């Protein structure tokens, strides 16, 4: 359910996207609003400027949240973004612990507006070599041996 506050903050995300164009960047903008609705941080897409395919605003803000917010605050924080987060950003958002994402345009709507924005998937093969691949994972997650003093 989208509230009046959600609409106001989505409009701000769209304003950030508009400002990105003025700066020579791609038209995507996002912000994080804390539990009380206060804007914590804003970002826009800087993929071209930074020559970095990961410089999406959603991923930048997910990283910020994971670094700067405690788990309880992150879980009560909402990301507002001008477009639905891509798969890369969704992975970062999921791991950041943010509680909610509200977006203006869906991926399907974005592709309808700009058919060149669709990205083909990369084929993936696997799983393979389970018995070998599991060893470093098990090693990493093994509890430390008790100390003998």
TrEMBL record:
One of its GO terms (molecular function) is catalytic activity. It comes from the Bacteria. Residues 4-121 form the CMP/dCMP-type deaminase domain. Gene3D superfamilies: Cytidine Deaminase, domain 2. This is tRNA-specific adenosine deaminase.
